[in-house]
User: Fold these one by one.
Assistant:
Number 1:
Amino acid sequence: MAGTAPVTNEGWSSRTAFVLAAVGAAVGLGNLWRFPTLAGENGGAAFVLVYIACVIFIGLPLVLSEVLIGRAGRKDAVESVVVVAEKSNVSPRWATLGWVELLAAFLIMTTYSVVAGWVIYYAYNFGGDLLANLFAGNIFSGAFASDTPDQIQARMPNLFAQPGLMIALHALFIVLTVGVVARGVQAGIEKAAMILMPAFFILLVAITIYSGLTGDFSKASSFLFTPDFSKLSASVINDALGQALFSMSLGSAALMTYGAYVSSETKLAPTATMIAFADTGVALIAGLMIFPIVFAAGLDPASGPTLMFQSLPIAFHDMPGGSIVGFFFFVLVFFAALTSSISLVEAPTAWLINSKGWSRLQSAIVMGLTIFLVGVLGALSFNVLSDVRPLAFWSLMEDQDIFNSLDGLVGKLLLPIAAFLTAIFVGWKADRKLIEAETGLEGGMFIFWRFLVSWVGPIAVGLILIFGLFPSLLG
Ligand code: TRP
């Protein structure tokens, strides 16, 4: 079938390469920044428990679904869905699923890269502090020892007050990402994952151990793991499911795109399970890394999105060795963000290569530039454009600035729609024999997985879509 031949003959060099790249895509700011923020705001363990249930019963089955669409189609996110639709004798209009996912990847990257720019800035500042302490022979000092807590907190608004610097950092992050994507699957994406992911894990374990030894580990672990079910509410459940989708990179073309490069010998079910578990494991470990430090410094776990950029730096200030830990912490976050952004850019780049016939280099640059331009508006919404309300016509978003509108569009609309469509497509529309063969699951396992995809997924995701769009229903 000439029409369904892979357009690129790129592929992972091994299963390990795929797993590392896919875990790299999944593990990112979602695990290190968003998960602790939401767990903190939603009272800890009750949220964590619901989150884990969402991962197992909704997220994991969908991870397998997306990877298998990619491998069965062997093209970009849009064309892979079309190939599976054709083989299943259903309408090629299912391509819509691929389009929604690509749009989600694009929009996520516009805001992701702005936040990753802040991470670069913090890593740079902590690095400078560490060097100064090194030369002063004071290496185990806390971070920014001569600053007051107010001055440390002020670093974030100070950054926001410099639009030029924010745009430059955002540009730098995109250039780094495009530089990797342009080199291709094996020489770029895979190589970056093979270096950055092991480095990430070493840093994660080292900082978590240090944080456990010096921080308030028992308070952190009871906060994260001893549930107080009175804290459970529809909105907590809603947040947990939305976070599970985001964290596993569902609904945003990454898993389909990376799935297309997987060899036909690889067993997909155990591989998808590894990806989902690794992602969840990292989120939990990130909680155990961050909260002991937060509690030891007597800070509020529910401080929201500024937890990483204002609370933690204060904690690093108070902590023995905080200068070292602070620097390596932001390096770790940077590595995690980079392996995710690589996948966010690869998905729409693969589509350009496939559909326009452009070279990989040209596709990656054009995509990077487009993302950069939209992202600039997001960066400027922290200062110059802070009064602009792009979605003012939509009551749900009328108060949101550009950055939060981009973010809300993805989280409230695109990811749940994409996950819903994926579940319906794989659970109900796609050819059962084709799907069964791709999963490699047998007997009861296949039936159970298919039940989760056909019933549990659409109902649960449908509910978060409705509650996300009509929050007043949650009371
Ligand atoms: N999972 C990523 C994180 O936790 C964010 C993300 C969502 C993503 N969708 C994606 C990353 C698609 C890569 C590709 O930070």
Note: Residues 25-26, 28-31, 105, 108, 246-247, 249, 252, 254, 340, 343-344 surround tryptophan (CB under 6 Å).
Number 2:
Amino acid sequence: MSKITHFINGAPFAGDSDRAAEVFNPATGSVEKSVVLASSADVDTAVAAAKSAWPKWSKTPALRRVRILDRFKNILWDRGDQLAKIISAEHGKTHDDALGEVTRGLEVVEFATSAPSFLKGEFSENVGTGVDSYMIRQSLGVCAGITPFNFPVMVPMWMFPIALATGNTFILKPSERDPSASLLLAQWLKEAGLPDGVFNVINGDKVAVDALLHHPDVKAISFVGSTPIAQYIHKTGTANGKRVQALGGAKNHMIIMPDADMDMAASALMGAGFGSAGERCMAISVAVPVTDAVADALIEKLMPQIKALKIGPASDPSSQMGPLITAQHLSKVKGYITSGEEQGAKIVIDGRNFKQDKLGYENGHFIGGTLLDNVTQDMTCYKEEIFGPVLLVVRKGSYQDAIDLIHGHEYANGTAIFTRDGDVARNFSQDIEVGMVGINVPIPVPMAFHSFGGWKSSIFGDHHMHGMEGVRFFTRIKTTTTRWPSGMRTDPEFTMPTLG
Ligand code: NAD
């Protein structure tokens, strides 16, 4: 069985830990690899490598830094397929879905290659007589990224392209469930010309994360994962003096107004609810039809489509939905369906007994698409993030009731409304207290040159990911004021300088 290790200082690194975790193929249910779980001494090695690479990398002209990223981008275009296969093998998502993930990550690299433009800074001449002032953005030093299983390529690439382009060095701690893609990214960065030590991968669990959170040489932590861990990362990281952005979980609602195109809404819900088996932080997990008539019409349209979902391994190109990440997660998702049933929801389509009959995949972590109607705010399946292919229908009588429902939820990552009414759509986008909003767009994931992030318990920290928010997160401002001898006073100045 192959053993996945770390990548430090430009080379694979075995480390000194004897702890390891199993890496499954979710489609077969079998253990295919094992991944070493770093000790804190291994983390120290990675931090030391990143720290010693930083002075030279941070002073490398931005143009040269982004040329390396440009070559990395071309490698990604050429070999994205190889990366997508690794994602599918460990995560389970379909090949096309994995390719889409690679492209969305690659777009952040494209954005990051403009670093010389957005690092330009500001200059003011004659802020006082003979005095000039300029502001520049400088890198922070060693930055770390801690990422979730559901996007093993895209989420790390929300972080490191911008961190590197702006002159930081980086340590990635990917999810231990699908760690292989990170190592390939590290090799390709090296092949593109990245100096050793600038990008490092440390595999591990809480031990590695805690070592990063407490290490005095780690200046910033970028995290994406579940809300309890995001909260912990933010609290511990900031208590240790680090800059932290920590994105958490989600429960995304989609309002369907009576004037919406019902075919379009149903098809949007299929992709947004069941794509990637619902393991997306921007998945729509709650449909909120306004009026019972809309709910009935929508369910009528959804039922045959959910029943017809092609559920299978990524190796079958006709699969539309793959397995869940682990057997443990599968039973958790089934538990939410059972709790919904017990608390009074109507099970319209039940995915719990789905059987995968493709030869060799009978033990995969598959579940069928599930639809629950008459869900209410007090049910566990509504309050908590399920992270599976389970679509809840919460019926509401009016637009305002639907808004109140969304505002009552602790998560506020993404949301959408389907309507033909421009006034309603405009009010929705202005008033809704959610970070990412779609108007007739079910998964409103901002492009790389905008920024990604939710509100409320979906984020801890001030900066969203990528776009200019990413640049702000990975840089700090320095303002220099200069005066040259011809403008200098010779007498001492004891009052607060006003320069005028
Ligand atoms: P997770 O929180 O279990 O793990 C995320 C990372 O934290 C992993 O690298 C993991 O090793 C580490 N970790 C786990 N437990 C830890 C602990 N006790 N102490 C320290 N570190 C720990 O999340 P996951 O299951 O990998 O991913 C799914 C979650 O991520 C969902 O909640 C999903 O909504 C969320 N997510 C959010 C976004 C977003 O942008 N808001 C994007 C993708 C995923």
Note: The radius of gyration is 25 Å.
